[in-house]
Design a protein that fits this description.
The protein is an alpha+beta fold. It has helices spanning 2-17, 24-34, 36-56, 96-161, 167-202, 214-220, 228-237, 239-260, 302-368, 374-409; strands at 62-71, 79-92, 265-276, 283-294. It has 10 helices and 4 strands. It has a 4-stranded antiparallel beta sheet, with no helix packed on it. A hairpin with a 6-residue loop joins strand 3 (265-276) and strand 4 (283-294). The longest helix is centred in the C-terminal third of the chain and has 67 residues, at 302-368.
């Protein structure tokens, strides 16, 4: 009957959680589609596009049409209707060119920044997925420990009733079960918290089980190699670095604008007006076409001051860019060192887990033969649990380190 109930429980869980488990690729896809960070980055692109259109307006004509109607009872001409149209077309304005180039560079930088924000969001979601999967595995280890402790308690009680062991063995087994239940509750709480964090990234509730990213773990187990060419490639591939370069260029263009004010500007002006002098049907048309030349010869030093300020800001941005480029190397090399360290830790944790399993099996058999105490059995069970947790943590820390390497290189999450 119990196997049948277990089967129904599994079927109910599959229906409740959704029959398909959640993969890391699907988690990243949901984060990019639903998380507000990606959408917010696109609004910055839209704003930059609007600023570019504003800068482009320097080159196009503007037309202003006005009309007025007046009824004056004190004069013979009681009704006056007038209309006018004014067209202005910039013929040449040196300031427009650096401002337009700046707006275009800022637009391109916003696009790259939006792409980089989506890339970073994908890695944040992937890391949250890996952390949650690790807590799932820890929960399984805690359940295994709880089941083992419960079986040991039943065995100890049976042996005590048979007079083969003292009551201290039962007490020790009860203490081990209580400890295992406490660890299980803590592991379940950690898992629920991690699921909430993951669900925040995905903007949806995560209830289904997670699929282990085998391709990612396999790729993470390969020895990392970071040379000078890898560092240079990462510095050229990172969108955040490319966006920073464009912003520096934009600031340089902005710093050139005050100097362009000294160059004379020319504007074409055309106007036509229509007004009645007598009856409302009596119209008189007037119009003119002219060219206006503007040359601000002296501005009390304002141009020079603004140019100095903007040049200093551009220089500061250049230094920040140089620091960011150097920091890419630090991130990449540090991530590679961390990955190598986690790979070594996983090898040792795997060896320790094999030894702990062997020790637990041997101690359990010795206890059944009366050659080991309940204290030794509980200690072996605890060491097995600790080894399982350590192996899980080492395995998924290695996956996180590999993700950090890919992120530092400017690559996507991928699947390994």
């Amino acid at each position: 009957m119990k196997p049948l109930l277990s089967l129904f429980s599994l079927l109910f869980a599959a229906i409740a959680f959704g029959q398909e488990s959640l993969t890391i690729e699907r988690a990243v896809e949901l984060a990019l589609a639903r998380n507000e960070r990606a959408a917010a980055a696109q609004t910055d692109v839209a704003a930059a596009e609007a600023r570019l259109r504003q800068a482009r307006s320097f080159f196009f004509p503007a037309v202003n049409v006005t009309g007025a109607y007046r009824n004056d009872t004190t004069t013979d001409t009681r009704n006056t209707l007038s209309t006018s149209a004014l067209l202005t077309q910039p013929l040449f304005n040196a300031r427009a060119f650096p401002l337009y180039r700046q707006a275009r560079l800022q637009r391109d930088a916003a696009r790259l920044s939006a792409g980089e924000e989506s890339r970073v969001l994908a890695f944040d979601a992937a890391n949250a997925f890996v952390v949650t999967l690790g807590f799932e595995q820890v929960l399984l280890a805690a359940e295994h420990r709880r089941d083992f402790a419960r079986a040991s308690l039943d065995d100890s009680r049976a042996r005590f009733e048979a007079g083969l062991v003292s009551s201290n063995d039962v007490t020790r087994a009860e203490l081990e079960l209580a400890t295992a239940v406490r660890e299980l509750a803590q592991a379940n709480g950690n898992l629920q918290t991690a699921r909430i964090e993951l669900g925040t990234f995905l903007n949806t509730e995560v209830t289904q089980p997670l699929t282990e990213p085998t391709a990612l773990l396999e790729a993470a187990s390969q020895p990392p190699a970071v040379g000078e060419s890898d560092v240079a490639a990462a510095q050229n591939q990172r969108d955040d670095i490319a966006a920073a370069r464009l912003r520096v260029e934009g600031l340089r263009e902005f710093a050139r604008e005050p100097r362009a004010r000294f160059i004379p500007s020319a504007t074409l002006t055309a106007q036509t007006s229509n007004i009645n002098e007598g009856a409302i049907s009596d119209r008189n048309n007037d119009g003119f076409v002219g060219v206006t030349l503007n040359w601000p010869v002296l501005d009390a030093g304002l141009r020079r001051a603004e140019e100095a300020e903007r040049t200093a800001i551009a220089r500061g941005a250049e230094l920040d860019l140089a620091l960011a480029v150097r920091d890419v190397e630090r991130q990449l090399r540090s991530a590679a060192v961390r990955l190598a360290s986690e790979q070594a830790a996983l090898r040792e944790a795997t060896a320790a887990l094999r030894a702990a399993r062997k020790n637990a099996n041997e101690t359990n058999e010795l206890y059944r033969q009366g050659l080991a105490s309940a204290l030794e059995l509980a200690d072996a069970n605890q060491r097995l649990f600790e080894a399982e947790v350590a192996e899980v943590n080492a395995r998924y820390r290695m996956a996180q380190a590999y993700l950090a390497v890919r992120e530092a290189r400017g690559e996507g999450v991928g699947n390994g």
